[in-house]
Amino acid sequence: MKRGSIQLRLVLPLVAAMLLLLGGCGPNEHERAAQAAVWDFNNGNFPAAIAKLHSLAQETNGDFVLNNLRLGSVALAAGDLDEAEAAFLRAYEVLNSVGVNNGGRSLGAVVVAEDMKVWKGEPFERAMANHYLGLTYYMRGDYANARACYENALFKLRDYADDQGNKRDAREVDSDFALASLMLGKCWVHLGRSDLAQANFDRAVSLRPDLAPIARLASEGKNNVLLVVDFGYGPQKVQTGDGSLAGFRPTAAQVGSIPSPTVVVDGRPVGLQGTDLPPMDLLAVAQQQRWQSIDTIRTIKNVVGYGLMGAGAYEGLRQHNDPLLGLALFGAGMLVRGSATADLRFWDTLPRTTFVLPLQLPPGRHTISVEFPAVGLTQTWRGLVAPEQGEATYYFRMLRWSTGPFDSPTSPLPAVKP
After folding, report:
1. Whole-prediction pTM value?
2. Span 126-144, average pLDDT
3. How far apart, in Å, are the Cα atoms of 73 and each of 348, 356, 394?
4. Is the confidence at residue 109, as pLDDT, over 50?
5. Does the pLDDT of residue 280 top 80, yes or no?
6. Helix axes 81-95, 64-78, angle to 10 degrees
7. CA dihedral for 359, 364, 365, 367, sign (positive or negative)
8. Which has more pLDDT, 246 or 297?
9. In what order do the strands lie in the sheet with 353-359?
10. Residue 105: which pLDDT band, with cuts at 50, 70 and 90?
11. How confident is the model at residue 160 (pLDDT cuts 50, 70, 90)?
12. Most buried of 94, 229, 268, 298 (most Cβ within 10 A)?
């Protein structure tokens, strides 16, 4: 038997196996269900979205973290703190574990495709996961656990900057997540450590001087209501170039600047005293390389794929060649290159930005509306409690088809007289 024929018999089964493994490029049933849930969420149908995501979030597959983050986002918008906290906590535990993508799953990613791995997101998505779990604790008045989440968010970011070999970038990374510094400072206010609170407020202002009004009001601790308002839509991960790289769209320039909110309490506008500035813009953040993960497996598969394609082309062109062997090698290279296509999964319920709006209101129950007149968005909640002492925190997720009025969810705060 000829040597080329022997090689061909060895290569063809490998090609056939790769074809079987790579079969079915379209979304599977679970992915279609998740996409339908996100569509429900964007259209304000929170119960339908929660029903779809609740079962998906229990599946321990590669989308476990992503589906739990989706569920947490929807539950938080619906005012269901129990569901939101449980979902964010499940995602948090995986994101902060060691070895999630080691062993068999990484081997599967090398042989088949990148999306066999457990999705852990980009650095900015992991930072937002820490933020939202911290926010659920903060809304419950559990400031110690909230503090730990916000500290972990900043710690992870500094670690990420250091891992890239550019320690000077750690401060720049923090500058894009001043939201965590502000909320960490507020946690310390409630925990009675004014010194640590002021240190975090000072840090936020040093990174973003325009946040000085928010930091000043937060440090005084005189507000009895805090509105956390999510606006817009976060970045979407898209395929670019030859399919092995991923970018984020749209850019901040493509959609324009972030509009300012107004707040109406019991039919009357209230002054925001310069706090109506966004602490971050995820569309801008996503464009920066220091907020993006580097996938060495994808790079290796690119090199291997091009190598096989080159070997196949050489075999096809050389004298006394075996054309079938050359075709098999070239085909194998194309398959490996195909499996190097970027993982395009992303957290598709993220906002573009999060406003932090401290208010001092008369004790009692109020109807509160947050409005963005420039884009015609509004959302109204009735019966929100402004306590005589302490602080009540309420979350608004601004969506086109979710205007309200909604009734206040059950509050852990003691009832106060209207």
Report:
1. 0.79
2. 96
3. 10, 17, 14
4. no
5. yes
6. 150
7. negative
8. 246
9. 353-359, 225-231, 392-397
10. very low
11. low
12. 229
Residue with tokens 């891992």: 163
- 167: tokens are 């320690």
**Amino acid type, 306:** Y
